[in-house]
Amino acid sequence: MTLKAVVFDLDGVITDTAHLHFLAWRAVADEIGITFDEAFNEQLKGISRMDSLQRILKHGGKEGTFSDEQRLALATKKNALYVQSLASLTEDSLLTGIRDVLADIRAAKVKIGLASVSLNAPGILHALGIHQAFDFCADASRICRSKPDPEIFLAACAGLNVRPDAAIGIEDAPAGVEAINAAGMLSVGIGCGLNHAGLQLHSTRELTWKCLTEFWASRTYC
Ligand code: B16
Ligand code: MG
After folding, report:
1. pLDDT averaged over every residue in the chain
2. Which of 55, 59, 130, 201 is positioned for an S-S bond with 206, CB 3.0–4.6 A?
3. Where along this sequence does the record place binding of Mg(2+) (predicted)?
């Protein structure tokens, strides 16, 4: 089978905004007497804003403390801080190798999709100057279930008009790799702790078109 599309996660694959999410959540958590470190923040990668808040409240033993309205206010405050910090993003904030691999996938006439659960994804792609590199970006506001549910990867494949089994998904989060596998796509994991990925790479430096095509050839049959 021919490879028809490559679907990227955003945070941790295209650019590294995890630290900015961490700083914004930490500021909000501090105000309600919850402390957490960057190791805990790892569990929030690929998890939607409201689900992240739930996990933080649970971590701080305050799961049932806030009303829906108060939780929404906390999430809104976090997002305002996060959006402020995004002003620091420029075209130089692309992770190493991403510009080249996007250009090479395009040159090979393979479609490119985005499967990020971030509601800020369109703004981030603009700030990075790569919004035109994508044939289709799944709309996070239309997604009901966070990764590890395959919903966002399936939405990206549907928008690209490509069958999931003709596509590769690329992720940095365990929940994201699970989502790709559950979608029936081939998965590439960037970073450690992703043994469930079909192909595990240490960093985006290793994410080349050659590596993707070799992986595809090794895992599919004509
Ligand atoms: P927002 P991804 C995810 O992006 C982040 O990894 C996760 O930490 C964040 O909570 C989520 O987006 C929602 O982001 O608050 O901007 O809507 O990894 O799916 O690209
Ligand atoms: Mg990610």
Report:
1. 95
2. 201
3. 9, 11, 171-172
